[in-house]
Amino acid sequence: MKNRTLLVGLTGTIVTKLSKFIRPIISPLIAIISALLVGVILIIIAGASPIIAYTALFQESLLTYFGFGNTLTKMTPLLFSSLGVLIALKAGQYNIGGEGQIYLGALGSALIGLYLQNLPTFIHIPLALLAGFIFGGIWGFIPGYLKAIRGVNEVITTLLLNYIGIYFISYLVQNPLKELNAPSPYSPLIAKSAQLPIILFGSLAHAGIVLSLITAIIVWLILNRSTLGYQIEAVGFNPNASHYAGISVQRTVILVMTLAGGLAGLAGSCEVMGLKYRLFDVVSPGYGFDAIAIAFLSRGSVIGVVLASLFFGALRSGANVMQRSAGVPVTVVYAIQGMTVLFIAMSLALEYRVKK
Predict the structure, then answer these.
(1) pTM recorded for the entire structure
(2) Residue 243: which residues within 8 A CB-CB, separation 6 or more?
């Protein structure tokens, strides 16, 4: 009898833990499937076969060696920047400035890679990554400080800082940092000792993907197993109650926005150190904006961010192949991304209505 009771209790614990793990994944999964079904309609309207298009899209991005490496490469900046959006969201802050923070992070790493020479790899790479984190962090600190001290809406400041960051880098690579006689606006190559090694031989996948996954674990630990994570959650849930509980709301807001900027900055670092090996005009094709969609798709879960980043990375990786194989415009992929977020927003609104 005693053994039976223990077995029932153990089974109940396992079911509860599994339910806790699976529950946050169900809604995003339904949203993705719904978006893909809408994508079928768009592909048919475009005059192509959905089976051929989706086969090309996912076979190339997930089932081929080079394609999967390309997916991981595109997943890396998405994961870094969406972790930045997520940690800000936990504190009730909307970090729309991931794009600009990516550019600043790329600048920080590029400067270390260009102007510090003859350093051992084990010093040069961490130093360049740290510079990317600091530069991105400064770009996140500005709106965090303005929000905490002056009450300036962080959505507006982060959005505007995107443009300042992008045009600032554009100016630099067209003028003082431009390689001599280069046909396009880009800097000279960074030192080899600052370049991230390739982890899948013959593909584009670099060590940045490992770093991004380790960062995801660290962010999970901070949010779920630390006092800081509790403070962030508390401020996001109720700033007034947090203030009366002795938590410094201003300090927490500044800290999470700085961390968010630093994480996005690492995305830029990896683009320079692992992919292009130089600073260039278009550091990011919109990773910072995709990160907002990924963070919402994850519904506050770090595991969800990892999975959603992989999904978005696969979409970006296979989009061009889908266009070549099935003649479907790449814009259909962006429509699927948008539909995914729309369905998530609808499910959240529905849940809110039911709870109310």
Answers:
(1) 0.88
(2) 249
Distance CA 75, CA 312 (A): 7
What's the pLDDT tens digit per position in 5-33?
Answer: 666 666 666 666 656 666 666 777 787 88
Integer Cα distance of 169 and 162 in angstroms: 11
d(CA 107, CA 112): 9
Instruction: For residues 100 and 280, give the distance between their C-alpha atoms in angstroms, rounded to a whole number.
Output: 14
How far is residue 13 from each of residues 17, 18, 34, 224, measured CA to CA in Å? 6, 9, 32, 19
Nearest alpha carbon to residue 148 among 258, 272, 11 = 258
CA distance 323 to 52: 11
Nearest to 207 by CA among 274, 122, 263, 125: 274
Rounded Cα distance, 238 and 249, in Å: 10
Residues 6 or more apart whose CB falls under 8 angstroms from that of 290 comprise 78, 81, 82, 312, 337
Q: Give strand pairing partners of 280.
A: 186
- Single out the residue of 64, 67, 65, 42 nearest to residue 53, CA to CA: 42
Strands (E), 19-95: none
